[in-house]
């Protein structure tokens, strides 16, 4: 097991290096000059050259890349073009907001999707099944920003139960954090739940057709026990992967939702960095997201081994 | 709203207020070091602005979002009043030498920075030198400045290479020329924890979320009524409006334009507007054919229906114009030769031998009104036989294309002007830094150069009028409108005034409890 983990960590390092290279090259292709954006519309050529030199953009590409990687290895991701602050600090500052939003969203999604998916599978073909499928179709097809705005208009505007936007740290004031996180997390969670529900439904349907289910039923176990003890446990293995992918993509920040709800997470940071062509911040944010993605994948593999002992043997 | 529901809301609000009041008291104690703030004072105003400052160094930022905040933190030597006339601020009086080349400013007595350190003439010299030698954004405002010296702690002498009638506007027109503190700059803290001499001081800055200001007890202008101001960054205008309605926010300048007329009529919120000194325009690339021909540019000028454009792009929240300077200014020049006349436009195009013209019109998603305006313009130009291809870019790309001259036409605004020089020189002088559409007219160059150094106000106005007429006749820019500044606040806010230069000043504002 230890060797497995070490090998996976080494692989992750190589992947991350690849990510820095791809991102660096892609940013060269993005139109728009960061120095010009930083200076706004009123500038003179001397100022322009001075800022370009300060940002190191007058160096050859290879040198820019090598010095970036060199510094990144020591944890120094450079400084923001716009604010002059260290990128590492900026990105890490934004992480708690994103983690708390993503965590709440995925929790809501799982709490909603597991019962719905199982119910739809068990009652396959009935009105309940159809209702669940309509729900999940709705969730995946309606844009999340529209759902967000509707949520704000209803729960903040008409009912006045929740604040329309804003952020309070979880450690600062848990009650106010909860009131702020509920709307954006529900918006994101609903989309994730729709996707999850479909997977759970088909995974459970598949498991229901397995021989061990017939065996269990033949033993005279009650249907509830069969579903919970036998079907669900086996159906969960593919579902874990889907949940993990959802978690990983949420950790990247739900850009539209974070912008809409004025949520100071990594997604909004990425959005602002793109707008301003703040390359160091953008690179740092993408690197962080990639690292989290790899970490989640590693954890999933470990979880797999727990759920299905046969996997460790491979 | 039903009785029972309003009860619930009221209870929820009471809890929220109690909680936020608790936080506020704690914060102000932290900042003042157990100062007397807090009890019986004016509360913290919650303001929502549409974006986040890039940084808080007034000399280095160029973002309007930074200046929204910094307006309340920094002072300049002089500052514009509500009519945009320059008034004393840090300098109480000034004299000009007979040859107009030496200006002597006397500083206000006993001005202190928010951290308690005195503000002296040395700070003024340091600030201006920093902008000039560092070639920072406002350096162009010091183009005629030969030296800045401080013969004594209360006197600043500015020596010039040429008479500069707009020197006061240059030194006080915006907070990019604010007086900063040397130690604050050298420690690097200025980008996140700036120390100014203004009515409020930055207490906390949470990246991506908010900036909190607290009252500056040392402010020379008296004690502001508010305990502080919190600026939160809310990008979506619908969300900002919901915050305002729900009372989480007291003030915003980020209202959905299509809802403004209804909001104005409602009695729930106060929504006020003022004509701004910004202008929006179409520029045609005179380095490209056939836009190098004045007849073609004039033809497009006649093809535009400015009323219709304004209605669509600004929901009527603007004043149509054909010259740059708005009516309220003393430098306004009443001239509007381009009536909406498609017949005339077709005739001019025919005379120029232009047939089946396709025009690339570059707009930016950063300013959605340019996208809407472009669609209306496309329809209007189609009417005179010009096919418009609208190219919508994000602002970074837009600026790039503009600088490369890679466009037939573009649509943008020029923001925050006070002196006529700011309306014309950079854009229409052949050596202007913003003359991306390559307009060249020796007469206009001469007029703008002369007006720059003309000290007689009457003659100066005359020169700018002549330049304005020539610019309009040449269709260097096709002016569309001066937009209104629109801001809204709740019934708790009093003492706030909307300003034509978009400066957001909370120094005289109070908040009902």
TrEMBL record, chain A:
Domain spans labelled ABC transmembrane type-1: 95-304
Signal peptide positions (record): none
Entry keywords, A to Z: Cell membrane, Membrane, Transmembrane, Transmembrane helix, Transport
Superkingdom of origin organism: Bacteria
Cellular localisation: Cell membrane
Bilayer-crossing regions: 101-122, 134-161, 181-200, 235-261, 281-304
Membrane topology classification: Multi-pass membrane protein
Family: Belongs to the binding-protein-dependent transport system permease family.
Protein name: ABC transporter permease
From TrEMBL, chain B:
InterPro entries: Peptide/Ni-bd (IPR030678), SBP_5 (IPR039424), SBP_5_dom (IPR000914)
Pfam families xrefs: SBP_bac_5
Position of the signal peptide: 1-21
The entry's keywords: Signal, Transport
Domain Solute-binding protein family: 85-433
Source domain of life: Bacteria
UniProt entry tagged with the keyword Signal: yes
TM ranges: none
Gene3D superfamilies, per the entry: Dipeptide-binding Protein, Domain 1, Dipeptide-binding Protein, Domain 3, Periplasmic binding protein-like II
Family: Belongs to the bacterial solute-binding protein 5 family.
Protein name as it appears in the record: ABC transporter substrate-binding protein
